[in-house]
Amino acid sequence: MAINVIIAGPRGRMGTEAVEMVTNEPNLQLVACIDRKNDKEKMREYPTLSRLKIPVFEDPEECFHTVQADVFIDLTVPEACFDHATIAIQRHIRTVIGTSGLTNSQIEELSAISKENQTGCIIAPNFAIGAVLMMQFSKMAARYFPDVEIIEKHHDQKLDAPSGTAVKTVDLIKQTRLPKTQGHPNEEEIIPGARGAVDDGIRVHSVRLPGLVAHQEVIFGGSGQTLSIKHDSIDRKSFMSGVKFAVENVIDLNELVYGLENILDK
């Protein structure tokens, strides 16, 4: 039986790819989309949705009330995403979130709502399987190389910095690495911010340029050696296998899971 899916953010770059992926997968069925800037006259902006007669709703409440769905995918912005996910989970629609920029308190609140309603939710800082492995390898390496810096690079339309992938990488590294202040104790930033953001002594540098998609390098330094773990997404299609994987697995969850790495081996 096909999994009925609602997608929020069908006009975005990720949303466009997700619409194409879902409509081309035999075990997935796109039943509606949510776009708060939609109106009936703009259906021509959605050629795939128009051809398949997929309804596009401005109001998420109306969408979730009108359409029977198994899974909701949100690929919007943090402010809208939190509201969408809250409504979906409370209506017992399992939810997959690819929107980055949610605060820790928002994630904790969604986790509580998910648990209360016994309705699964997956928040994935990155859907590319290679990026998930990069984060896991970094966690392993940090046990032996405590000196580490992260350089993440994304397109210039990305709203949050550092990226959700970088934040998740830092969280994973902190699980195996003791806090440490890196660099010379008397170092000075001639230009403020030159050394990047810092979390638990880990330096994070964000690059935003046109032409980029999603890239991250985690650089470890040790006595007489360095180790670099790098991942590059050069096309947003690289994220779709992870989106499909999340949709197929969230069906069996009754609570919130943060990061695809937690379900890869299940």
UniProtKB/TrEMBL annotation:
The active site is at H154, K158. Residues 3-127 form the Dihydrodipicolinate reductase N-terminal domain. Keywords: Amino-acid biosynthesis, Cytoplasm, Diaminopimelate biosynthesis, Lysine biosynthesis, NAD, NADP, Oxidoreductase. It is an enzyme of class 1 (oxidoreductase). NADP(+) binds at K37. It catalyses: (S)-2,3,4,5-tetrahydrodipicolinate + NADP(+) + H2O = (2S,4S)-4-hydroxy-2,3,4,5-tetrahydrodipicolinate + NADPH + H(+); (S)-2,3,4,5-tetrahydrodipicolinate + NAD(+) + H2O = (2S,4S)-4-hydroxy-2,3,4,5-tetrahydrodipicolinate + NADH + H(+). Pathway: Amino-acid biosynthesis; L-lysine biosynthesis via DAP pathway; (S)-tetrahydrodipicolinate from L-aspartate: step 4/4. One of its GO terms (molecular function) is 4-hydroxy-tetrahydrodipicolinate reductase. NAD(+) binds at G9, P10, R11, G12, R13, M14, G98, T99, S100, A124, P125, N126, F127. (S)-2,3,4,5-tetrahydrodipicolinate binds at H155, G164, T165. Gene3D superfamilies: Dihydrodipicolinate Reductase, domain 2 (3.30.360.10), NAD(P)-binding Rossmann-like Domain (3.40.50.720). It is found in: Cytoplasm. It comes from the Bacteria. The keyword Amino-acid biosynthesis applies. Its EC number is 1.17.1.8. The keyword Cell membrane does not apply. Belongs to the DapB family. Catalyzes the conversion of 4-hydroxy-tetrahydrodipicolinate (HTPA) to tetrahydrodipicolinate. Homotetramer. This is 4-hydroxy-tetrahydrodipicolinate reductase. It comes from Ornithinibacillus salinisoli.
